Amino acid sequence: MQALKVAASLVPAKWNDYLFYLDSIRLSICAKFSKTMIYKTKINFACTNCLEIFDVEMVDIQFDKTGELLFNPIPECSFCGATEEVVLSNVGLVQIDHLMFNNEIRTIK
Q1: Is residue 87 in some structural domain?
Q2: Among 109, 53, 99, 106, which residue's Cα sits nearest to residue 80?
Q3: Angle at 20 between CA 18 and CA 26, to 5 degrees
Q4: Which domain holds residue 54?
Q5: How many domains does the chain have?
Q6: CA distance 49 to 64
Q7: Binning pLDDT at 50, 70 and 90, where does residue 67 land?
């Protein structure tokens, strides 16, 4: 078994510096993947027109500058085809809270 050889300049001297170093690497890798990878998430919606509850597979969810949610694609009722009468259901609100807590919703700058 060979030991891993690392240049002394790459390894910080203090443990806290080392943890900060690893965290900065993790964040840079996550930033690169979040820009290139597309995650599809099913979000639960309710239609106030036909009173049905349904799921829509979202490609992208963002906050605009005013803090409103922008969905891609625009949620459309799978029963009656309405788009303006579609609102987040209680389950959908919990799903959005979960995505916000995990920092998976981007903010448009």
Answers
A1: yes
A2: 53
A3: 105
A4: 41-107
A5: 1
A6: 26
A7: confident
Residue 7 falls inside a structural domain: no
Length of the chain as a residue count = 109
With respect to residue 89, please indicate whether it lies within any of the assigned structural domains.
Answer: yes
Q: Is residue 8 in a domain?
A: no
- Token pair 């965290």 is found at 23
Tokens of 91: 């389950």
pTM: 0.62
More confident residue, 89 or 24: 89
List pLDDT tens digits, range 6-60: 444 454 455 556 556 666 666 666 555 544 334 678 999 999 999 999 999 998 8
CA distance 80 to 51: 10
Q: How many helices (H) and strands (E) does the chain have?
A: 2, 6
Give the Cα-Cα-Cα angle 25, 30, 31 (nearest 5 degrees).
Answer: 100
Do 40 and 55 touch, CB atoms closer than 8 A? Answer: no
